[in-house]
């Protein structure tokens, strides 16, 4: 019964996020040129590289900076909480890289660049994009749900040819 309630609540949350104008990007839709066609596996592995580096480096930072605060370190001992906290912090850092360079280290390694139809990728737009990826595409880092959401997002990309 509890799992049914959680699934139902999550489904309702997904539909609410889709309907929310803050999370839709209807004004930026334009045909994607053939040379910018989306490649799913390189994007996935670039995300894996970025998330691995983010969780590792942010965890090391927390261990060094907060070693005198045991309450914070107790939170980071739980691996799921650690990943969720680190990925949340990574959203803000990733947005800086995307707004300034159009890519992160993982995207650079796989030759992927984030583009905007009107070449206006400001920090607020990059931050909104990162939150959409974190919340909708990665299910805030929750282990099993994350896999389902990434599969759903990949299917959506195949159908529409766009990530937004």
In one word, what is the shape?
A: globular
Q: Helix- and strand-based class?
A: mainly alpha
The fraction of residues in strands falls at under 5%
pLDDT under 50 segments (min length 5)?
1-6, 20-30
> Sheet with the most strands?
none
Computed Rg: 17 Å
Describe this structure in words.
- With about 160 residues, this protein is an all-alpha fold.
- Helices cover about 70% and strands about 0% of the residues.
- It contains 7 helices and no strands.
- It has helices spanning about 1-20, 40-65, 70-75, 80-100, 105-110, 125-135, 145-160.
- Helix 2 (about 40-65) packs across helix 4 (about 80-100) and helix 4 packs antiparallel against helix 6.
- Residues about 1-5 and about 20-30 have low confidence and may be disordered.
What is the structure about, briefly put?
This protein has 164 residues and is mainly alpha-helical. Helix content is 69%, strand content 0%. It is built from seven helices and no strands.
List the keywords.
disordered N terminus, 164 residues, globular, mainly alpha
Secondary structure blueprint with pairings:
Blueprint: H1 2-19, H2 40-65, H3 70-77, H4 79-101, H5 105-109, H6 123-137, H7 143-160
